[in-house]
Amino acid sequence: MIVITGGAGFIGSSIISELNRRKERNIIVVDKRENRSRKNLEGLIFSSYIDKDEFIKNLKSFNPSCIIHLGAISDTTCTDRDLLIKNNFEWTKTLARFSMENNIRFIYASSAATYGDGKNGFSDSEDNIKNLKPLNLYGYSKHLFDLWALENGLLDKIVGLKYFNVYGEGEYHKGHMRSKVLKGYYEIKEKGRVFLFKSYREEYKDGEQKRDFIYIKDAVFMTLFFLENPKINGIFNIATGKSRTWNCLAFALFRALGKKPSIEYIDMPQKIRENYQYWTEGPISKIRKSGYSKELTSLEDGVMDYVNLLEEKYRA
Fold it and tell me: What is the pTM of this model?
């Protein structure tokens, strides 16, 4: 039995889809009882859906072989510290302790947001954890668990995954946290152009801020690599190792839609300017050295594949 918290969400439901493809059916989905993202589960096969509070309350009645813990408040603009600490830190500690006490494989989602502005690098070495300074409360709540796991000697027993900018099928429900690929697709459809933030640093031109964009299929394969290899533990980047600009993403969108590029640079909201990340890039040498050998999808190919899926739904 595999438990997937946040299982109705973007990455969680995509993992269930891939597990189903691999003939795995004995899956417990843990998420909020009322959740718009439950639409992601249509057509998928799993044994039960359990409300997250009920799951925690009755935790000792479960005996899974693995917990893939993706459930969290992932809004990087959330300012409710207590809520973030409860959901992203305390809940993760509870699940980690339960897993260790019962010899259960524990794979949890950390975040690239823990790296902050990148001044201390994006290395997923455990030696780098204490150097990191997240820029927002979301990143801080994720960082707290990484620190706790490090200080309690758990990182040689569990797996923490630092997901970078994941995009792809199944993110429709995420509101303003949807990827720019999805947002940009509808901007082109409705406005004929893509809107990108202006730069407020001299070393970056407008639209030349960079991110490590990773296609959902690659994020899923990387995650399940650790389910397949239970002796490999520690912190790992889930990324491509190659940053690309927002302009490159926009150009890929227009190309996929067969349209001439049209980009409008808009003011960045004042509340995010100070803590805005101008560059992220997740080295993946660590997961490669651990044996992960699949070729990664290029931004252009990933956007093309995603747009083709969106076009099918748009015409439906």
Answer: 0.95
